[in-house]
Amino acid sequence: MSPLTARKTWRTVEPLHGMIYFAPEASESYARLGIRQEAGYFASRAAPMGAVGAETVIATFYNFNPRLVRTAVTDVWATAAPADVLEARLEAADASLRRMLGDAVDSPEMKRAAELARSAAERATEQCAGRPLFAGHAGLSWPEAPHQVVWHAQTLLREFRGDGHIAALVINDLDPVEALVMHVASGDVPSAFLRATRGWSDADWDAGVERLRQRGWVEDPDRDRAGANTDLALSGTGAAVRQEIEDATDRMAVLPYEALGEEGCAELRALARPFSRAVVDAAGFGV
After folding, report:
1. Could you tell me where the DSSP H helices lie in 125-185?
2. Do 208 and 181 form a contact (C-beta atoms < 8 A)?
């Protein structure tokens, strides 16, 4: 099994999971439990681990400002039990996918995609050690409807990969802010989005840039007249480190897809691609 195949298959199916963080059905579902919008993301992803405290969420989510996490998570379990949050999340996934995909949720293609995705996710459960966020999700019961099976399977595969990615960041001695800076400097995502959603101050961000500059991993950023960072770029060394982290993440994510083989992965991508495109076209990512 090629790590590239594992990466391509994860990326192709990922919109069917990732939409839950942006679809209005999710925030509405959490609001009915009394959970405010900014806390819904943290509570819904952490709920499979039980009523954990902020420190566990900080550790497993990794790149968010601890102050942001503590504000969101403190007392959230007094508002709604983890089981209630999980039920609300599954209901939101059901409603949002039905809105975005229409009759396709009951199609033969969705049923076959569910079989393949579940096979991969169940293989992943053979290797829970060292993957705490994934392990929490792996202990949940499987839903019955095919589109919900695909969503749950991809959720497991995303958390399996994510836990491995955090391990790669730790091995390379990248703290949460530095990891975000490297991501921005790679050109993959705008800095405004990560800075707005991860809760780090300008001072925190600039300090992270400076630490990486001292390591020789980012080029000196251009600065405007106010002295603010206006551009970031990886140095040759930084690009090599970034690629090493991505390659390690891909290697650690291979196991689930071995259950499908190259042909099974190609079939899953072919089946899921129209569904993923429909989700993106339906503004499931808030764009």
Report:
1. 132-138, 146-171, 176-185
2. yes
Going from the C-alpha of 38 to that of each of 28, 73, 242, the distances in angstroms are 12, 10, 30
- CA dist 58 → 43, 55, 62, 93, 215 (Å): 12, 5, 6, 25, 25
- Cβ burial 92-111 (10 Å sphere, 16+ → b, else e): bbbbbbbebbeeebebeebb
- Residue 229: helix, strand or coil by DSSP? strand
Q: Which residues face 234 on adjacent strands?
A: 218
Q: Minimal CA–CA distance to 153: which of 112, 121, 123?
A: 121
Q: Quick one: CA dihedral 208, 175, 51, 162, positive or negative?
A: positive
For residue 107, pLDDT over 70 is answered with yes
Do 134 and 159 contact (CB within 8 A), yes or no? yes
- Cα–Cα distance, 104 to 134 (Å, whole number): 28
As a whole number of angstroms, the distance between CA 259 and CA 277 comes to 25
Q: Which residues of 37-57 are buried (b: 16+ CB within 10 A; e: fewer)?
A: eebbbbbbbbbbbebbebebb
CA atoms within 13 A on the CB side of 84: 15
- pLDDT tens for each residue of 63-73: 999 999 999 99
Distance CA 168, CA 28 (A): 35
Tens digits of per-residue pLDDT, 76-88? 999 999 999 999 9
Residue the block writes with tokens 């999980």: 86
Q: What values do phi and psi take at 266, rounded to 5?
A: -65, -40
Q: What is the pLDDT of residues 224-270, one digit of tens each?
A: 434 444 578 999 999 999 999 999 999 999 999 999 999 999 999 99
Q: Whole-prediction pTM value?
A: 0.93
DSSP code of 145? Answer: S
